[in-house]
From TrEMBL:
Residues 54-278 form the SET domain. PANTHER family: F21J9.27, UNCHARACTERIZED PUTATIVE METHYLTRANSFERASE. The keyword Transferase applies. It comes from Ceratopteris richardii. It holds the Pfam family SET. This is SET domain-containing protein. SMART domains: SET. One of its GO terms (biological process) is methylation. GO terms for molecular function: protein-lysine N-methyltransferase activity. Keywords: Methyltransferase, S-adenosyl-L-methionine, Transferase. The keyword S-adenosyl-L-methionine applies.
Length: 471
């Protein structure tokens, strides 16, 4: 199950950024060049009607990344940045026909909707190729490389050890390669005055760069006209925290939507300005942003609900009884209500997050362990009661069996990983790891620790039930 080989990662680094080299300037993110470009970006925002608090600067924050820093203490409520409506970069709404933007709009239709970052990425590539682009001071400040997994080598992708995310990486690789092919065919027919990339070739690597630039930096805006994703220059220099010290607000006016960042706490001198990117799992953080958070409260490990797997877990937990596949028709209807059986069933169940265990899986186990004689009691419970971890809605005996089976499932999932946490932690101590190699290790260690945490929390519940029974 955990031995999927993905040996077609795209080249690790982008080829020389052909699109920017033609401008006579090279986007190199050396420290000094970066500082200077950072200052140019701040000046550009101010020159174009935006506000940047004088006590803010762009600075290196380690790992080659940059961030926004307070150079003086700032009180909570301070307005840090404001971008007027014309500074965000987004896909144009109704471009004039026979303009490059119109061609671009046609090209975005080739991209599946769920890969919205690739759609907006085409616009970023277009501005990167456009000599004299209004957004050049912004585009030029974007990182040249992104540590997202579709740039990993095959072995690095395999080293993630978690099939759902490996599947997503492969899908993204495939989408980039497919789009490269389609664009190559279409763009040869486009007249030069309508060519969105100034006649330059766009390949899977530059598409990947653009998709990562967008997925790791774009914001979603909602207003009366609907929702849209956009790039917010300078605001997107803020790094992420689940306990942020600043927030974004949106203001509507007849000119459009402007965006501001406000300090949400007192900021000490030298504080990083941190926003929250949302309640995101490590899968999304890895795939879209190229980093993971240890002990991420929003992370989870997924598995496919399958009675054969539950049977294996029951046997591993040394619990007797008939196989779950023999379950009575009466239980079937509850499993259907839980959407785990029947047409259109949704079989993905998760461990982790604030609930610890997917309520549907817990309810299914409780129901599957119920005897025919318990059925009246099952009928008296509503579905949400059956899904709550607190309490033992069908009695302590069924509860202990259900919890022991869940512990066994976590242990089986853990056993599917080819290496243990200790082995991974030893590899992490090596100094010659690549950035991608380290990220893959951190990612899989976080998944395994999540399962260990689940086992420990569920075991504590079993122990407390056993104590109650003995009293
Ligand atoms: C919106 S940008 C923030 C600015 C970025 N650091 C830069 O140098 O341009 C998001 C990227 O910053 C980095 N980042 C943000 N928050 C992070 C965090 N908490 N830990 C590690 N990297 C983070 C990741 O590379 C992510 O893709």
């Amino acid at each position: 199950m955990f031995r999927i080989y993905a040996h077609w990662g795209l080249p690790r680094t982008l080829p020389p950024p052909s699109l920017s080299l033609t401008r006579g300037r090279v986007c190199v993110r050396s420290y000094q060049a970066h500082q200077q470009q950072g200052e140019e970006l701040i000046s550009w925002v101010r020159q174009n009607g935006g506000h940047v608090h004088p006590s803010l600067c762009l600075s290196s924050i380690g790992n080659g990344g940059m961030g926004l820093i307070a150079t003086q203490p700032l009180v909570s409520g301070t307005l840090l940045i404001t971008l007027p409506p014309h500074l965000p970069l987004s896909l144009p709404n109704s471009p004039a026909s026979s303009s490059p933007d119109y061609t671009l709009a046609q090209l975005t239709k080739l991209v599946p909707d769920e890969l919205w970052a690739l759609k907006l990425g085409l616009k970023v590539l277009m501005e990167r190729a456009h000599i004299g682009s209004f957004w050049w001071p912004y585009i030029c400040n974007l990182p040249q490389r992104f540590n997202v997994p579709f740039f990993f080598t095959g072995p690095e992708i395999t080293n993630l050890q978690y099939p759902p995310v490996i599947y997503q990486v492969k899908r993204r690789c495939r989408a980039l390669l497919d789009l490269e092919k389609e664009l190559r065919n279409i763009l040869t027919e486009v007249p030069s005055n309508q060519h969105p990339f100034g006649g330059q070739e766009v390949n899977a690597s530059s598409l990947g760069w653009a998709m990562a630039a967008v997925s790791s930096r774009a914001f979603q805006m909602h207003n009366s006209k609907g929702s849209a994703r956009l790039m917010l220059p300078l605001i997107d220099m803020c790094n992420h925290s689940f306990s942020p010290n600043a927030r974004i607000i949106q203001q509507e006016s007849k000119e459009g939507t402007s965006f501001s960042v406000i300090a949400d706490r007192h900021l000490e001198e030298g504080a990083d300005i941190l926003l929250t990117y949302g309640a995101l799992s490590n899968d999304i953080l890895l795939l879209d942003y190229g980093f993971v958070v240890a002990e991420n409260p929003h992370d989870f490990v997924e598995m496919r609900y399958d009675k054969a797997m539950l049977d294996a877990a029951r046997m591993a937990a040394r619990l007797n009884g008939d196989g779950f596949s023999q379950s009575a028709v009466s239980r079937q209807s509850i499993l259907e209500q839980l959407n785990l059986e029947g047409a259109g069933a949704s079989l993905q169940v998760n461990f982790g997050g604030p609930k610890l265990v997917d309520g549907r899986l817990l309810a299914a186990l409780r129901v599957l362990y119920a005897q025919d004689s318990d059925y009246d009691s099952v009928q008296q419970r509503n579905l949400s009661e059956l899904q709550m971890l607190d309490g033992a809605p069908l009695g302590d005996v069924i509860e202990k069996k259900s919890l022991k089976t869940l512990v066994a499932i976590c242990a089986l999932l853990l056993g599917h990983f080819p290496t243990s946490i200790t082995e991974d932690e030893n590899i992490l101590k090596k100094i010659d790891l690549t950035e991608a190699g380290r990220l893959a290790l951190e990612y899989r260690v976080a998944k395994k620790k999540l399962l260990v945490d689940c086992i420990q929390a569920l075991s504590r519940r079993i122990t407390s039930l056993e104590k109650d029974t003995m009293q």
